[in-house]
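User: Okay, second chain of the day. Same drill as before: sequence in, structure tokens out.
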Amino acid sequence: MIEISSNTNPRIKDAVALQEKSALRRKSGRFVIEGIRETEQALAAGIRLQALFFTSQLQAARPDLVRAAEKSGASLCLIHETVYQKLAYRESTEGLVAVAYTPNKTLQDIPLPKNPLILVLEAVEKPGNLGAILRTADAAHADAVLICDPLTDIYNPNVIRSSLGGVFTVPVVACASEEAVQWLKSHHVRIYTAQLQDSELYYETDMKSGCALVMGTEATGLTDYWRQQADAHIRIPMLGRIDSLNVSVSTAILCYEAVRQRHER
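Assistant: Same drill. Structure tokens below.
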């Protein structure tokens, strides 16, 4: 175990840089996890930890978590409270931050049951929206979330925080739209694109068989590529003056319609 009392320690500076720089996360293949629940979920998902930074209070309260991190191969770093305040990304007193290796998941790594429910996000750019959608995916027991042509880092600290660790509880894969379409069609998964034009009401669409719900950005919606590949275009009725819902809210509405139909069956 290493004890760290200085904010200028190279390990601390490296962890802070990983939080702030997506380019460094991509180049090094590492990211930062903050929080007890998030770290537990990462370990349960088989995420490899490089290092665990924790305070003496955390060590006293959760020695089991420290042991689990060490067993996974993490270097243990006992840090002073002032160092934790430097390292902590959010305002919390949990006293734990981990550096983890980014999992290299592909579409072929996703185990699909019969009649899967899959969420597809094209060019999602706001970490908060992605995190909220991952929470919905976890709650609705979606089988996978595909991030196509992403404009945000899946392991951005804001994604991990806003997903409450949901990024670890649901299979999440980043890929090109063409790869996603080919994979979905090869598994006989119907593609339903959410769009206002040339569409039918979502609750009149059969979602009981395997389907992928495809969402675009709030600003521009889906590209023509996805619209052309769809088996059906679906929409949420807009009865007010504003013709757009937040993409995470729209995803939750459509996702739970699939859940409702399947439970009804």
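The chain has twelve helices and twelve strands.

User: Thanks, on to the next one.
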